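Final report, Chapter 2: Outcomes

The project's central promise was a pipeline that accepts a single protein chain and returns its three-dimensional structure in a standardized token representation, suitable for archiving and comparison. That pipeline is now operational. To close this chapter, we reproduce one record exactly as it appears in the project archive, with the input sequence first and the structure output second.
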Amino acid sequence: MYTYEKKEKEGVLKIKISKEVWENSVEEAYQKNKGKYNIQGFRKGKAPRKVIEQTYGDTVFFDDAFESVISEEYSKFLAENKDVQPAEMPHVEMNSFTLDKGIEATLTFALMPEVKLGKIEGLTAKKKAVKVEDKEIEAELESTRASHARYVEEDKVAENGDFATIDFSGSVDGVKFEGGTAEDYRLELGSHTFIEGFEDQVVGMKKGDKKDVKVTFPENYHAENLKGKPAVFEVTVKKIEKKVLPEINDKFVSDTTEFETLDEYKKAIKERLVERKEQEAERDYEVALIDEIVERSTLDVPATMIDHEVEHILHDFEHRLSHQGLTLENYLSYIGTTLDKFKAERREDAEKNIKARLVVQKIIAENGLQVTQQDLDSRLEEYAKQYGMSSDELKKNLTPDDVAYFENEVMMSKLLSFIKEKNKK
């Protein structure tokens, strides 16, 4: 039995659990958990409920029973009231509990905000014109040139741009620190890989030279024990290599690419850059269209939804940091901020993300956009062809999450095509 009331942005659900329903829930909790308890004189899982309650306390099964019965009643309420859309898991508070009358509890939860969709026609967003400049083509050529560089060992004084193979051992106040020692480290001088001032002091050294390089760790350095500390590195140069770049000409192009002449290669680079910029311009245009519709729409996002989205952003960021061998704690220390400040700075993005999702869902619902099996099959076939497999082979290995991903991809493509069609000039 329940009563429901909407209070501004929250739903308040009051649930009454009868004595009989409660007793059944406790019994179910006993049956589910009895194997966890060791009772002398009984095989594991065979001790009667009363014996376990006498040993571990009368309320030993209450937590599981309460969670189960509340969850069941809450699910039943949502099934019978499909217009109620919670934005989060409810906060549960027990109001009263007696063995002869049962339980009364209140569940409070934020509601999904109502979306008043703005017009999706007459949007002002425009796709940017694409232009490739000569300097961009030259930059691509230089990148190709650098990828084919040779490194020649020379008996010379080290200069910026050279690669120095060094041994080093660092200390602070005469004490060596973790991570401050290495052998045969190949350092590109002028790359600013090391602490400011380190590479400048290696410039001018030759093979066999030894030197004390004096630097100061920055105040925002990720290691707490080294922040702002002066350090001395004993450096030994073992090799100096000069970077030798090839000349870009027809011969180089024919030897290293599928093209015969430099002009052909430049033309191909330009076409590739145009294609890349076209794709970027299209994505930017699509984002601008959605952003403009969001601006035209009205919705008030509950703070709890923003809190959850901030946590999602934070979790995703931590995951990406882990692939770089960093922890969030080290990163925050390095940039000189706190977790609370970092979260606060993400709230605006979090709110924007939520609004965009809700507006997109509203457009889809109001316009009856759907992903058919044919739509999905076509996308899977396209994907399979791209990776050199049959669509049947791909489908066989898809998980439910994979299918959901492709369905979402197709739906977004349909949605964006729908919006663009509405805004054809």
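Archive annotation: The domain at 262-422 is CATH 1.10.3120.10 (Trigger factor, domain 2).
This record, like all others produced under the grant, will remain available to the consortium after the project formally closes.
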